[in-house]
Design goal:
The protein is mainly α and 263 residues long. The chain has 9 helices and no strands. It is 72% helix and 0% strand. 40% of the residues are buried.
């Protein structure tokens, strides 16, 4: 583990603390106060993100430290999902914010890195950003899917949809972003390396992830909510594939490929 005794690190640790306080207050049924701390935590992460942007002089989406830092800005997604999709679980989102910030705060190196020529493209920001957003949505879907296994019924709040339907809505929102990420990456590959597809390990596992969610959507369109546990299992398998794509493929030396700079 690596403690970051600098302004960047202190901002991350402050955000983690605020998210934890928000989580505790929400569990203690002090939701309004918890929401305030949740918002404050997001603002601190946003400041950390902008500080990093200014420090490295490019949008901070290059390496694992920067990816997990950006994943910590979960508040707007959480708010949108509750207001527009009637999907709750804000307490889980607060805890998820702590979990994704932990690698940025204690594991991955934060030393500034030069942006390699392959990433000096207008496609860099949109390609990575849509994946980051889709990963947040799919993580929220997995939380709802896990709740489907652990607890029968749905949320006590009648304004919110039940767990199985909530997971479905999250995937329906996240899947087009995964698709867009694949399309942008393929086009970028053509421009940078002369081919739309190179069977790079990262490309392969991104495709596997996309196919799992495609199978889920197809299965649910055929059977609806008749097999809720199978639906939820497919959503959880999708998150597992995302973790492999994001972590194992980037960090395991046996998977070294064209995307290895992300490590």
């Amino acid at each position: 583990m690596e403690f970051k005794a600098n302004l960047q690190g202190y901002l991350i640790y402050a955000a983690m603390l605020l998210y934890l306080l928000a989580f505790g207050l929400t569990l203690a049924r002090r939701k309004k106060t918890g929401h305030i701390f949740y918002l404050l935590g997001f603002l601190v992460v946003l400041i950390a993100f902008l500080y990093r942007w200014n420090h490295v002089d490019h949008i901070p989406l290059q390496n694992m430290f920067e990816i997990f830092l950006s994943l910590g800005m979960i508040y707007p997604v959480s708010l949108f999902c509750r207001k527009a999709l009637r999907v709750g679980a804000e307490a889980a989102d607060m805890l998820l914010g702590v979990i994704v910030l932990f690698p940025a705060g204690f594991i991955f190196n934060a030393d500034p890195q030069h942006l390699p020529p392959a990433l000096q493209s207008w496609l860099f920001a949109p390609h990575v950003a849509v994946y980051v957003l889709s990963y947040i949505l799919m993580a929220k879907a997995a939380v709802q899917a896990a709740a489907q296994f652990l607890k029968s019924g749905g949320p006590a709040n009648p304004e919110l949809v039940d767990y199985e339907r909530a997971a479905y809505r999250m995937v329906c929102l996240g899947f087009p972003l995964l698709t867009l990420g694949l399309i942008l990456g393929s086009y970028w590959g053509k421009l940078a390396w002369g081919d739309f597809w190179g069977w790079d390990p990262k490309e392969l596992w991104s495709l596997v992830t996309w196919l799992i969610y495609l199978i889920y959507l197809h299965f649910r369109s055929m059977y609806g909510r008749k097999f809720p546990r199978i639906n939820s299992l497919l959503v959880l398998l999708g998150l597992l594939a995302i973790l492999i794509t994001l972590l194992w493929v980037n960090l395991a030396r046996i998977f070294a490929g064209l995307h290895s700079y992300a490590a």
